[in-house]
Amino acid sequence: MRISEVANLTGLNVSNVRFYERKGLLTPIREEESKYRDYNEEDVKRIKQILLYRKMGVSVDSIYLLLNGQAERKEVLLRQKDELQSQIENLQGAFALCSLVLQEEQIDDEKLEQYLNYVHEEEAKGKQFAQVEELLEEITDFTWTVLFQWDPMNMWLFQRPKIARLLSVAFWIFLIAVPVINLISVFMWKTDLQIGLLAVYALIIVIYGTGFVRYRKAKKKYSKESVGE
To answer: How far apart are CA 77 and CA 84, in angstroms?
Structure first.
């Protein structure tokens, strides 16, 4: 069957079906003569499975691992349940804050400080609000998908975002720490200055740093263009 028929049977649009195919979740047979995709009942069933998991908020990467037998369904869903519970708690704090701010006709500097202090005090008591981790997320994405060019769908690491972020930060700390430690040892313990090593690390840091800046600019540009559409 054609992609339009599959879209009608699953309630998705054609672009969604193509997206799942690009991500490797679907592998329809291509006709030899026309090269058109030929979907079968198994593909339709697979799309419905994908849709079910997506409705629970499971990431495409995790769904890929699930459908290919590389992850346990119970483990993935328990982890997703914990994530959803965390999101619910975040939303409750954000909802309460939104309700408070809505009562104000205008937020002056004094009110702004009051509400931010309120957030800090409530967070100290254990209440959760929406997390602001945009920069950390961008560093993680850049580190794994651009620098190492690893496909997240084939890595168990991306089932555990916190570990991915931790390792990304550790990578950058290590990259910067090595030349710094060498310089400290030169001045404190009078060891030989390894100019060649420092030059290599400096070059790597400049290249990676420049790449990250360009990555962020490209991402922002893409976001603006998407909003414009």
So the answer is: 10
